[in-house]
Amino acid sequence: MKRPMQKLLMPLASALVTACIALNIQAQEPDTAPIEQSLDEIHELVSKHIKQKIDQQTIEPVIHLRKLSPTLKLPLCQQPLEVHDRNPDERIGRMTYSVSCNQPNWRVFIPAEVDGKLAVVMAAQGILKQAVIKSADLKQVVLPYKQVPRGSIIHLDTAIGMRTKRSIGANNILKIQDLQPPYWVFKKQQVTLITKIGSIQVKTKGIALEDAVEQQQVSVKNSTSDKVVKGIVIAPNTVMVP
Question: What is the reported pTM?
Answer without folding.
Answer: 0.59
